[in-house]
Write a structure and sequence with these properties.
mainly alpha, 2 domains
């Protein structure tokens, strides 16, 4: 089984595109972090009331991350709860020089990857060559709302879904993904190529169904 991925500060400048704080300036994020400080302080001595309040305050943010990586909502809730247990357990290790909400975001991403780590089957991609430039695999232009986009992404296999999220939504480079998942950069590119090809098929099917 793949080792659990250690939490780093890589996500500090890579907040998820569909988070509850989408498009908010860094100054606003710091103000948001500041508003959480009283709850965070209360959680340090394991105060259950403050833990519950912090959980509620960050539920929407955490859930939007987990639902993108999970195969369904039930798994997303399970992953998110595991993530919050990590947040409370590691709270004393949070570096105050980094945004707290970004730190929580990375813990949630890590929890998602660890949840599926034993079933990713990344070795299946190692010998595949990327014969087409990933940037040339154009996805059909199709206006999708957030829930529709989620349903499409959730149809991808676990490995494809995770790498697609890390690259296309979190903004990680293939080098960062390779280090994060303990794979080669070529394997990361291969998985992304597969994911985009499958998304193209799914979106084309949705378009045809809509026109029928």
């Amino acid at each position: 089984m793949r080792q659990s991925i250690s939490t780093t500060n890589k996500i500090d400048n890579k907040l998820t595109q569909f988070s509850v704080i989408q498009m908010i300036s860094r100054e606003c994020l710091r103000e948001y972090d500041g508003n959480l400080q009283k709850l965070i302080a209360g959680c340090l001595p394991q105060n259950r009331k403050d833990q519950k309040m912090l959980y509620k305050a960050l539920y929407g943010f955490a859930m939007k991350i987990c639902i993108r990586y999970a195969g369904n909502r039930v798994e997303a809730v399970e992953i998110m709860n595991k993530g919050f247990l990590k947040v409370f357990a590691k709270l004393k290790k949070h570096n105050i020089d980094h945004l707290f909400i970004s730190w929580v975001g990375l813990i949630m991403v890590t929890a998602c990857i660890n949840y599926y780590s034993s079933s990713l089957k990344l070795s299946l991609y190692e010998d595949q060559e990327v014969t087409e430039d990933i940037s040339n695999i154009d996805l059909p232009e199709q206006k999708l709302n957030y829930d529709e986009l989620l349903r499409v992404i959730q149809q991808l296999p676990n490995a494809d879904r995770i790498v697609f999220n890390l690259f296309a939504i979190e903004g990680f480079s293939h080098g960062e993904i390779a280090a994060y998942l303990s794979i080669s950069t070529s394997t990361s590119k291969s998985i992304l190529c597969n994911a985009r090809a499958k998304l193209k098929i799914i979106l084309n099917s949705c378009r045809l169904a809509g026109n029928s």
